[in-house]
Amino acid sequence: MSSNLTSFSENFSRLTGHPPMRWQRRLFDQFVDGAIPQALDLPTGLGKTSVIVVWLLALAWQAERGEVKIPRRLVYVVDRRTVVDQATDVAERLRANLRSAPTASLTAQVRDQLNKLCIDPTDDASPLAISTLRGERADNREWQSDPARPAIIIGTVDMIGSRLLFSGYGVSRRMRPFHAGLLGQDTLLVHDEAHLSEPFGRLIRGIAEVQQAQKAPHPLRVMELSATQRRQDATAAFTLTEEDKAEDLVDRRLHAVKRLHFEAGAENEDVAIAKAVELALRYKEERKRVLVYVRRPRDARRIADELAKATDRSRVALLTGTVRGYERDLLAETALFKGFRSDPERPPPEATEYLVATSAGEVGVDLDADHLVCDLSTLDSMIQRLGRVNRLGGKDRQANVHVVEWPAKKDDAEKGKLDKAILETKTALASLPKRDGAHDASPEGLRALADRREAFAPSPRAVPLTDILLDNWSLTRVKDLPGRPLPERWLHGIAAGEPDLSIAWREEVNELAAYVARGTKNGIRLVKQLYDKHPILARERLPAPLSVVKDELKRLARRKPKDGEPDEPISAILLPVNGDPIIGALDDLIERESDLANATLVLPPQAGGLDARGMLTSEARYEPEGTPPYDVADDLAASGRDERRRLRVLLTREPEAGGWSARGIGQEIAVPNELAERLAAAQAIKAAARAIRGHLALAERALLVLDRDEEGEPTRALLLLGEGRATATAQDDPAAAGRSQDLDEHLSWAGDEAEKVVERIGLKAEAPAFAEAVEIAARWHDRGKNRLAWQKAIEHAPPRQGQDASWKPWAKSGQRGFDDSECGAYRHEFGSLREASEDETIRSHPECDLILHLIAAHHGWARPHFEPDQWDIADGVSEEENAAVAAETMRRFARLQRRFGHWGLAWLESLVRAADYAASGRLAANGAPASPAPTVAANAAKESAA
């Protein structure tokens, strides 16, 4: 691969379909030198998202020379729900073009250099992992499986920020340090539209400064992107030079004609809406694409309804942040919406089309309308809106922008400051040069307003990051620790407006509510397990401001039932951002104010509340065969994306048939005659579950017995199925894998994988002692599984003494479950730690402390402790000996965190974890069949025969 800019231009063109602009070539030059600017301050429409391509080509350039200076992972953060995840689309096209590059091409050489960074270049995710912690990709975990592989991770402020602070929303406590370590080290965090979330910007800059002070191994790098950069904050920003502006393409977009008109103010909301509709309808006969922006979802809905009446409903689309993800996904696939995407070759529509949007359509999507009608908002918002009209420019295009002044409302957040900012925005926009009765609102004209800070939306007050907070957040194994708040205020600041509450609908809610109401032992824990393994996805969620949702839900809870509808309280399940599910009546749950912020409330479809556009309204009633569908948890067709299959099955014992029947929940399943016969003959619930999962070629994720008869035998059960166990599932269940595996073999494989990990990331050359510590820890990490009770828990108890000399302890159980009644709360990591602490080779190693901690922490424990019931259960180990090991575990964690820093230590832990997961992943790829493990009954039969 050539190192000059000619090769960059050719590769950029092949990967994106168009040549790079001059500023992109300059940025590449900086990246290959290891110089990452703190901010990228460019006008909208100039392809800021291409920083992903520039980073990847610079990484390949450095890999060829064996000196990787820039981070291997790029985390792309945007704090707004968007109908199109533009960053992920860019990343996926990039990977597809890399993979399809002809063998002898320059781009193939880029692919080869990136592959050399990966532990396994043949892995499905190579040469570039792409994971999205939002939307329908819903974290495929590609970024977790290989810390050496280049990766692009896309997420929101909440998803990324909470993980960086060891408090990942929706992440188990044992996985939080793993996420924090990988996201917080060897990572370039690109904060898109940084003006939208200034507190988060201060937080990530603060984290980077802390890591620099701690001398972390691979400190976090931060780059902020914005078309509305507040110049006082744009330290060390990368901006356009005069030579950049002189390029034809850049000049055309900077001077795209946008004629801004201030329309007469409206004395009330009804008049303002009517005026906006009237202005939009001026273009009804002109075959144009017209955008309408307003701040309030209720105004957007009314305008969309009025335009639909005056034209045709098929010519009007509505996009707000309060539309359910399912309907937003469907909207993105419509011809109308695709017509608004910027494309120089697109034809005009057959008739004028309208897209009515709130701020959800201002960022993160490449829209290019012909004309724009909007209310007056703050300057940062107006700049974003103006960037979505006549985006590509050209001498034959000019857009009209009609600004209608809405009357101020009492319920505006921070009303005084916001109203003042909007007035300042009008003054700023009115100062733009005027020609032929309209103001010049081109991107170049708007750049003159960038220092009008008083016209920007009020910034929330940021909360400082302190060492004490970081220490408390890093103690991930301590539940309900005083002085460890949720990270909400550090992510969004104080007085940033009210939080959201999301609503979803699931068919199983009534079943689960009744299950818990009966006082079933471990009921809440099992419900939590269900939602951990079958989480609420973005397409299922309908988010809206908490007060708005509460008002609608109160009306819904008190609504009188129609004839035939049950007259009983609506059951619901509340899923807080952290903590266990809360199950009860809807009217009780909506009063739990402290649990509602940013939570998800799951309703049964029978409750209703969803209109045809996917918006929440208490007036909407449920129609089983109607539109919209309520439970879309298993509907893969909506998003058109590849993702892990998931399915819920209700198993019911049929006394007359003597066996079981099955039906899908939320999605029908085929039950052919031969399967029906197997179910009818199955006496035990586990046999029925095996028949179903075998027929559907899916693995069991959870099996919840919902009802039992008087003898305690199951009569109904909920079976959750998903794709077969592989690396991702091994992360969920450390005992599970594609097939069973001997303990010695697994430890050998894990050590081999660790050796590859430290080699690929350069740790072996940077710090040989640390690299050796990782390798040794990987070769020891699971030795604590060699305990009789643990082997019994995975149904691999040894035969009677002398019967089978070939018996060996297992590390992986294959398709079996894990029966914790056999070994209680015992943690095999603690057993491994105790054995390792007695080994003379480890005790004499210069990094003994690190080795022991990595063994203890490889599933997220030892942060900072183990509970007494988790101590070693090996024969002959005294309580005093266990206590000494446990006490030293806490002291060791404190010493190492001071030495390596919060994220540096978590990153080293992640290397051992990644080696463990890679070793488990080899089980599915090494050619060995996933043979079913012998059952407990089979083992018992063997013993009886003996």
Overview of this structure, please?
By secondary structure, the protein is of the alpha/beta class. The protein has five domains: 5-241, P-loop containing nucleotide triphosphate hydrolases (Rossmann fold); 255-455, 3-Layer(aba) Sandwich (Rossmann fold), CATH 3.40.50.300; 500-607, no CATH class; 646-722, no CATH class; 728-925, Hypothetical protein af1432, CATH 1.10.3210. 41% of the residues lie in helices and 14% in strands. The protein is built from 38 helices and 26 strands. The strands form five sheets. It has an eight-stranded mixed β-sheet with strand order 10-11-9-12-13-8-15-14. Helix 31 (768-780) crosses helix 37 (902-925). The model is unreliable at 638-643, 725-730 and 927-946 (pLDDT under 50).
Mean of pLDDT? 87
| Number of discrete helical segments | 38
Using the 3D structure, state the CATH architecture of the largest domain: 3-Layer(aba) Sandwich
Number of E-type strands: 26
Largest sheet: 8 strands, mixed
What fraction of the residues are assigned to beta strands by DSSP? 5-15%
Note the overall shape. Answer: globular
Please give the alpha-carbon distance between the first and last residues. Answer: 67 Å
Rg from Cα: 29 Å
Tell me, what is the CATH class of the largest domain? Alpha Beta
Low-confidence spans: pLDDT under 50, at least 5 residues? 638-643, 725-730, 927-946
Content-based structural category? alpha/beta
Question: Helix amount, in percent?
Answer: 40-55%
CATH topology annotation of the largest domain:
Rossmann fold
| CATH-defined superfamily of the largest domain | P-loop containing nucleotide triphosphate hydrolases
